[in-house]
Amino acid sequence: PPCSTMAEKSAKPAKRLSSDSNSHEGATAGEISALEEAFRKFAVHGDTRATGKEMHGKNWSKLCKDCNIIDGKNVTTTDVDIVFSKIKGKSVRTITFEQFKEALQELSKKRFKGKSDEEALQEMYKLIEGKGPGLTGVTKTVASPTVSRLTDTSKFTGSHKERFDASGKGKGRAGREDLVDNSGYVSGYKHAGTYDHKVQGNK
What is the domain extent for residue 107? Predict the structure, then answer.
């Protein structure tokens, strides 16, 4: 009967929720925690072949910068590099998620001095969870004064000025029509067509 299937369906999500709250990381076997999600986002950043399971040193230091783990006082870029070299295997250039957590544990003692290991580690996780590689630099440059100055059509001069109307909207081909001037005169030459009159007048 349809009633029983409905009941089964609604019972399933409830089960998952309860197992979530019991597990420390908030992740069951099939789901990834916010921490692991952040790890994966940074792990694949800038590398098209990356699977998200291992992280390179470059992306590790980017993660530490973007998530404010490097504060310039307790934790510096050097600390981050040292921990990375210490945790990864000798012949490999990447760390796994498990090693990543070890590295965080190492750094958390420095970053949150005076807190218990457990507390410091939780604070570290908070800095990282839900984050992804920052692309902030990309959007900021568009708003820079230089770019807005270059794209302000009201300040354009010469023939470029003719290509935009008062509101700054491009006129398209109409604004460039004078380029298709077949008279043989340089565009913008004021006395076009006067030569013939002179010659004929002298005859």
Answer: 34-127
192 in a domain, yes or no?
A: no
- Predicted TM-score (pTM) of this structure: 0.54
136 assigned to some structural domain: no
- DSSP letters, 65-130, are HHTT---SSS--HHHHHHHHHHHS-SS-SEEEHHHHHHHHHHHHHHHTTTS-HHHHHHHHHHHHTT
Q: What is the DSSP letter of 54?
A: E
Contact, 149 vs 155, CB < 8 A?
yes
pLDDT digits (tens, 9 = 90+) for 169-195: 777 766 555 555 566 666 666 776 666
Q: How many DSSP H helices and E strands does the chain contain?
A: 10, 2
